[in-house]
Amino acid sequence: MDLHESGEMYLETILMLKKKNEYVRSIDVAHEMNFSKPSVSRAIKLLKESKLLTVDQKGYIDFTDDGRKIAEKVYNRHTTLTHFFVGLGVSEKQAEDDACRLEHIISEESYTCIKKYLSKQS
After folding, report:
1. Angle 60-63-69 (CA atoms, 0-180°, nearest 5)?
2. If you compute the radius of gyration of the chain from its CA atoms, what whole number of angstroms results?
3. What pLDDT is recorded for position 2?
4. Which residues of the chain have a pLDDT value below 70?
């Protein structure tokens, strides 16, 4: 599935919110991302139509298996890239910002090599 950066960002944000709270609603996502409620509602609708999320009658968002896999992949890339940049001496804030941008565009080959490099450093 070809998922754009914005869709990946929503999935990653929902995963991070679910790590903090059992239940996540669109309003929680809107607050976390500092987006309007209508923008988030539209994105959630598109992710539901793509069969990556479900929303129950109370408005609680959950992942489908495919949605969770994508969210975890993006989140793992984010944490790995952040760790890599911090290890190079980049400030935590800048490393987070750079990882957030690169996690969506880095090739699988480059990402795999960074993971291998980091595993040798541990």
Report:
1. 160
2. 15
3. 52
4. 1-2
The structural domains of the chain, ordered by start, are 5-69 (1.10.10.10), 72-121 (1.10.60)
Residue 16 sits at φ, ψ, to 5 deg, of -65, -40
How many Å apart are CA 26 and CA 71, to the nearest integer? 16
Structure token digits, residue 75: 């989140």
Instruction: Tell me what pLDDT residue 48 has.
Output: 97
DSSP output for 57-79: TT--EEE-HHHHHHHHHHHHHHH
Question: What pTM does this model have?
Answer: 0.89
pLDDT value of position 19: 95
